[in-house]
Amino acid sequence: MHAMLQPTVRTMTSTMPSLRAFSTTATLLKTLTSAQVAAKAKSMGLAPPPKAPMGPYSEFFRELYPTIRGDHLREDGKIDSHEVARVAGARWNALSAEDRKKYNDAAKRATEKYKSDYKRYYESLPADAVEELGLIAPGAKSLSVSARNAAARKARGEPARPQGSFFVFLHDFRKSDELKQMMERDGVENGVAVYTAKKAGEKWAVMSEEEKQQWVNKSNEQKQTYAEWKGKQA
């Protein structure tokens, strides 16, 4: 495994004017993947943006990988990546909070450095380059397709489409401290949506009808609100 580099920013040429005003599009929407942004920046003669930092588990895996890869080989002599991932995940889950602290701290330092590097990179670009690359202003969050659609519906005065009781529960579960604790415990960084849906499904399956009732009520309220709105459109 190649060592993952800390994010760096190359100095832009002095002929590039500083960005004075943020683009609305750049602030709200990222249209390209990180790899596409880097490739596009290169084609424009610009340095690529700094690479996103690693999370705590990735810091741990980077340290562990060289010590275990030789112990897990397939019959053809190549590294068994699935077995390596399984062993690494098991070792991560077995770490105490104290043992994980150094990886959490390393990830936090990398994140702070990335924020600083990205801000400097963003502000070094002319406005048209920011627009062309679809960069997000420092500190702003990009909007997903569903979020943009929801914003458009809200602007039209249209209520959100009603959801079934489980999906109302899932919406609340995504924002819960319980899920955050589960993810920290299991070292989840990738596949968050799948992990969340799985854990929500497991929790929903063992809940009593009485425990589910609050989300059933919320779902019914959504259906009533939407039906009333639809009736006014007729």
TrEMBL record:
Keyword DNA-binding: yes
GO molecular function list: DNA binding
Domain HMG box: 50-122, 159-226
Any single Gene Ontology cellular-component annotation: nucleus
Alphabetical keyword list: DNA-binding, Nucleus
InterPro entries tied to this protein: HMG_box_dom, HMG_box_dom_sf, HMGB
CDD domains found in the cross-reference section: HMG-box_SF
Superkingdom per UniProt: Eukaryota
DNA-binding region range list: 50-122, 159-226
Name listed for the protein in its UniProt record: HMG box domain-containing protein
Organism whose genome encodes this protein: Naganishia liquefaciens
